[in-house]
Amino acid sequence: MIVWDRVAELREEIGPEDFGEIVDLFVTEVSAAIEELHRTPPHPKAVEEQMHFLKGAALNLGFADLVAICREGEERAAAGDPFAVTAAQVRDSFERSRDEFLETLPRRFAA
């Protein structure tokens, strides 16, 4: 699920002309961070930090489902369970959200 009010707010803050660049950067950085999560040793602190980064990025662009899964992963890793949420689960959530976002975005902000 996408929080479109957050997307509209960010687009307004940045400006429509630069928003596409921000979206591209977000997709690139989050994809790279998820790949890094795949390679992260199963040390609770390392997983917690990666989940925290991903959660923050997802919050910025309104990816609510990704925020939720990363929050759970961050909290569980902080409690000593770095395996509670897998990188594959995070990737799947991101890909579903990304696809919904990219499909719906042009209609949401059509001129």
UniProtKB/TrEMBL annotation:
- Stretch forming the signal peptide: none
Q: Which InterPro entries does this entry report, sorted A to Z? A: HPT_dom_sf, Sig_transdc_His_kin_Hpt_dom
Q: Outline the extent of the HPt domain.
A: 21-99
What GO molecular function terms would the record report? protein kinase activity
Which named protein is this? Hpt domain-containing protein
Which stretches are transmembrane? none
- One of the Pfam families matching this protein, by short name: Hpt
**Domain of life according to the entry:** Bacteria
